[in-house]
Amino acid sequence: MADFWFQFLLALDSTLRVATPLIFAAMAGIFSERSGIIDISLEGKMLMAAFVAAAVAYGTGSPWIGALAAIIVSVLAGLLHGFACIIHRGNQVISGLAINILASGLTVIIGIALFRQGGQTPTLPKSARFNSIELPFAQYVADNIPILGVVYKELISGHNILVWLALASVGITYYILFKTTFGLRLRAVGEKPEALDSAGISVSKMRFQAIIIAGILCGLAGVYLSTATGAGFVKEMTAGKGYIALAAMIFGKWRPVPALYACLMFGFLEAVAARVQGAEFPIIGEISSDLLLALPYVLTVVLLAGFIGGVSPPRAIGQPYIKER
Amino acid sequence: MSLNITKQNGGESPPFAVSLKDICKRFGPVRANDSISLDVLSGTIHGIIGENGAGKSTLMSILYGFYQPDSGQIELDGISSAFKQPSEAIAMGIGMVHQHFMLVPNFTALENIILGAEGQKGLRTGLQLAREKLQELSQTYGLEVELDSITEELPVGIQQRIEILKALYRGARVLILDEPTGVLTPQETDQLFEILKALKSEGVTILLITHKLHEVMAITDVVSVMRQGKLVAHTKTNDTSPEWLAEQMVGRSVLVNSQFAPGKPDKIALSAHNVCVSDKRGFNSLKSVSFELSEGEILGVAGIAGNGQSELLSVLSGIIKPAIGAFAIGENLFNSSQPADPAFLRQLGIAHVPEDRHAEGLILQFQAFESSVLGYETNPKLGRNLLTDPNIIKEHCSELMNSFDVRPPNPKLLSSQFSGGNQQKLVLAREISSMPKVLLVGQPTRGVDIGAIEFIHNTLIKMRDRGCAILLVSVELEEILSLSDRIMVMNAGEVVGTVDKLDATKSMLGKMMSGIATGAASASSASASPELTIPNLKGGM
After folding, report:
1. Which residue in the set B57, B115, B166 is minimally distant from A184, CB to CB?
2. CATH match for B257-349+437-541 among 3.30.460.10, 1.10.3720.10, 1.10.287.1080, 3.40.50.300
3. What is the extent of the structural domain holding A203?
């Protein structure tokens, strides 16, 4: 029983680690989609950011410079999306898809050109990564306080700064969206852009601002993948996390806190899948690890198919704003 | 820009609140505004009327900063001004209430009012300050609004008040209202006019854009008429008549509110019994609707938009099936287990002119000749076996265009390239050319010019006189009153009552439309024609 409890705690701990990029990306999605821009390019932006973060961190030896470069690249990708679908009123899904394809090809090609390691970046030394922060007294507390002490050491302590930042981003997103003037306008532009336009506020400007914020958050998701949880970039390392984040955002009805829960649920599934691999279960026996790893993706499809009919997205989503009078 | 003034108060205020001088605006080859000069006296209600496409909206958009004029000048209180965008016009005290409300549906009234004018002190303080200021405004002008209600849950009349408050909150001294009464009940219209009078008495200048002549006569002080981008007339309202204004609008004499001879109802063509419709969420959009429609009569369905009229048309045309109840056409009975299919209904002689011609009546990207046979494409006359013959269809379309005066009469133009009135005539032509026994018509003259309205009305009357049974759904009460032989009023998915045309008055219908009065309460109608309010369905069922 004690062992199960400990295992469960570890699963929760890794839930948080797995969910971190999802949370960043889901918040990015909320900003973008609340402004009326479908953001299918979460995946591509994350992938570009992961590559740039690893490459620049390797080159400079500083994870911080890597992160900054990654954020800039992710924002630029976002601006490209904006150029296509805000300025030129292109189809937002196609534009997003194009960015994803671009990211998947470009990261590998540039990776091979720069490092000649089959699209990977060299393994980053510890100094070029975001490392875990052990909270004070973790070991002491774990040894001396039953249960809560272990929770403190295993679950709360030992995360890198980006995990904390991801959690903070949920609160910040909530505050910006519902408690600030900017948030009021952002929500308005995704629901009824004409209302904002007729009040004398530029629809395009609002949408670009939203897209830039989304770019920053996606950048952080990528940074986390290649320089915090991983030690370098691996080809296609996002592996659909952008889409899962999109599903979590929809499942959370475009609201930050419910989206956080959805991200944690996806994270938990993946954490459990990794943990029960190879374990024998009564009656069913050993579960195929492929099946378990596919679970989050299967769930994504099921959730999207099952729930998308029941939720109401921002009303103006996907529609380019054409000022007609 | 010479915007170095803050406010024009004080004794020697210039006489004209707005003065437009030689405004010109072209869109491609079209002269939307052709050298328009217009002076609007401060503190008056100034009507601007004209057909669709006459340039009223363009002119107001220029004043509101949506568009920049190609040439010409705007003066406000005698000071020359130019607006690059609406925010500059708003800052100069111009407010606009759009025809389609510019409100975020899921925001509260308060959030909608302050959107874009939240102030510098943060959202919370902004909302608090706004609340205080709005209380004052509401009291001054009699504009009462629950500030914390969700906008989409409020009646249209209240939503409009939110729009007016939005403009006043931004300090509007000149208020432009674009077709403000299109979505209102007569009672709401009266209330709006009270508000406008209150605003006027406080010195607000009001520009009222409309195509409803009786409203112009009722409320304006001065009226300007626009036709084809030009200002063709400008007169004091007291010195003019609706007939004269209509003539100025169209450029020739037209009949205003024509009175038609009553129809001669024959045997029953269509009867509905207890028809109910519920949507996915279980909301009942139609509740036990029963009525009968005879050959040779027009049954008008009056009601504020969204009270079940659309669903009624959809059921009767076979687009959705009734949850409960049935309707009968001749010997054929349709209910939920035996639903109607639009193609079969068409064979039975049911034609449908949908409410939304863009969504259901035409395919805008199709050429006119293709749109002119939609739903009738399997007609053997239009081709051979499985193939249709484009040449035959084009010829067919040409004939329709000629007999219905569709302009330009070119079957190869895209459906989207015709004006609203001509699109509507094309749809009407298609449906009528099949010589239907029953014609279901939704909003036949929405967004249609006065000239075309006259034509469409005459066509419907001609069809009726030939023995066609017509169900006419319209939100225009004048249209219902002018064409119908009987009027059925709907509210919240129910039939409130059915009134004979001769007994119907506007205020009575208005009360029924808003659910205040029932058919029974309007005693005259109930006693005059009791057999009409209680459908007798023994024959059909």
Report:
1. B115
2. 3.40.50.300
3. 2-124+159-310
